[in-house]
Amino acid sequence: MDMPLGTIANAAAIVAGSLIGLLMHGRFPENVKKIVFQALGLSVLLIGLQMALKMDRPLLVVFSLVLGGIAGELLRIEDRLESMGERLKRVSRSKSDLFTDGFVSASLIYCVGSMAILGSLDDGLRNDPTILLTKATLDGFASIPLASTYGVGVMFSAVPVFLYQGAMTLAAGSVREVVTPELLTQITSTGGLLILSIGVNLLGFAHIRVGNLLPAIIAAALLSFTPI
User: Fold this and answer.
1) Rounded distance between C-alpha atoms, residue 4 and residue 214, angstroms
2) d(CA 132, CA 118)
3) CB of 18 closer than 8 Å to CB of 154
4) Which one, of 226, 9, 22, 47, lies nearest residue 136 by Cα?
5) Distances, alpha carbon 36 to alpha carbons 97, 135, 176, 186, in Å
């Protein structure tokens, strides 16, 4: 089995971008940090909105979010992500109050989206890491303002990215036939609403438990084969 080179590059780019962000962390006055944080929130909102507008079956997305949210609450996904963040915080001996918030937010931003799925499949099926290398570049640059705001927790988001995308790359052969353009459209539009929710959280408009909505992506994939 070939190594998931695209995923390795993606994780490395997140670490590199985070290190740059950490170096910049103490160099900004509080008002500059605040405007960077707001700019980041607005950017995430725009990315999520752009993805969500690909929606062509709104009822499917509604059902996906509702069913996914119920499943996520029962599985306590958000709590588990936060627990993982707390364990990594202890291992790294970080004293940052924002470690877990940074870890969870960055992990969701990097893992939710069609580029992660399509790129992993391309890398696994055709040994073509082009999409993941593009995603690595985007994630690396995004890690700079994230890490400068949240701290070292953002760097540790490379762990779930590596596990998630690496697993899909290695399992690509078994899912090749079911990944259709229609399925990717539904995943993208549903994922866009999740990313939009992350932007809402970043700007402080509300606190949406985005981690518990992650099963909505699986629901969207399954419902794409129905007439809804």
Assistant:
1) 23
2) 9
3) yes
4) 9
5) 18, 22, 40, 31
Q: Report the percentage of the chain scoring pLDDT > 90.
A: 50
Q: How far is CA 112 from the centre of its chain?
A: 4
Per-residue pLDDT reduced to its tens digit, 55-68: 999 999 999 999 99
Residue with tokens 């909102």: 45
Residue given tokens 């996914």 in the structure block: 68
User: What are phi and psi for residue 75, nearest 5 degrees?
Assistant: -85, -10
132 C-beta neighbours (distance < 10 Å), count: 27
Mean pLDDT of 20-27: 85
Nearest-CA neighbor of 145 among 105, 88, 89?
Answer: 105
Can you give the pLDDT at residue 75? 95
- Cβ(21)–Cβ(146) below 8 Å: yes
Two tokens, residue 180: 């259709």
The answer to whether the beta carbons of residues 198 and 44 sit under 8 Å apart is yes
Question: Which residues, other chains included, contact 218 with Cβ-Cβ below 8 Å and sequence gap of 6+?
Answer: 68
- Chain segment 78-132, per-residue pLDDT in tens: 999 999 999 999 988 888 888 999 999 999 999 987 788 878 988 887 888 998 9
Alpha helix segments (H runs only) across the chain: 5-25, 30-52, 58-75, 77-92, 99-111, 114-126, 130-150, 158-170, 172-175, 181-202, 215-223
User: Are the C-beta atoms of residues 21 and 148 closer than 8 Å to each other?
Assistant: yes
| pLDDT value of position 2 | 66
Torsion sign across C-alpha atoms 30, 44, 9, 101: positive
